[in-house]
């Protein structure tokens, strides 16, 4: 069974600090997704990592994927209050002939609180 | 705005009742996915339809059913509702039957409260 574990789950951090969220998954998958969710809102796609060694950056967020270690990280640089949200990582099953099923398995989410 | 439209946004009903949630995918998308987000279970995949046909099933209860219509909108039917069915139900859509590059777009969700 494919499982996805995130940690930490409820970090509190100060503005201006750097922080990393870790996402471990239990079986082979070449695709890793990061989403952001504000309270009561939809899931906003942040990054889709499609291969081993993939690194993507957008503003203060950078995500990377190590498929050998089955680990993805979401690094936050110089956090600001606007980054307070719940961050989910998710994986799906890659099909032999390319693409994936889109039936994502989500982690429990990391509820990040950035304090001034 | 992802382009995926869900209605209703909020719904309050009683145990034992039946409700229908509706989803219109993004223009041009043929696949529709339903997810449930609850405090207990987190985000779980329920079911996928592609061009009117069921393509994948996840942790969907027998009391729940879904369908996708010729105009590609989808409905999720929840019956014999229990307190534990209270959750946020998301619809997502993608162009094809599979995600070649990871493009999956989520709607705003329908919040169901069962009293």
Summary of the model, kept short:
The complex is a heterodimer of chains A (116) and B (115). Chain A is an all-beta fold.
What does this 3D model show about the protein?
The complex is a heterodimer of chains A (116) and B (115). In chain A, strand 7 and strand 8 form a beta hairpin. Chain A starts with a strand and ends with a strand. Chain A has 116 residues and is mainly β. Chain A is globular and about 40 Å long. In chain A, the strands form 2 sheets. In chain A, strands 2, 4, 5, 9, 10 and 11 form a 6-stranded mixed sheet that branches. A 5-stranded antiparallel sheet of chain A has the order 1-3-8-7-6, with no helix packed on it. Chain A is built from no helices and 11 strands. Chain A has strands at residues 4-7, 12-14, 19-25, 32-37, 43-49, 55-58, 61-66, 71-76, 85-91, 105-106, 110-115. The model of chain B has no long low-confidence stretch (mean pLDDT 93). In chain B, strands 2, 4, 5, 6, 9, 10 and 11 form a 7-stranded mixed sheet that branches. In chain B, strand 7 (64-68) and strand 8 (74-78) form a beta hairpin. Chain B contains no helices and 11 strands. With 115 residues, chain B is mainly β. The interface between A and B is medium-sized, with 26 and 29 residues.
Labels describing this entry:
heterodimer, A: 116 residues, mainly beta, six-stranded mixed beta sheet, five-stranded antiparallel beta sheet, globular, B: 115 residues, seven-stranded mixed beta sheet, four-stranded antiparallel beta sheet, 11 strands, 0% helix, 52% strand
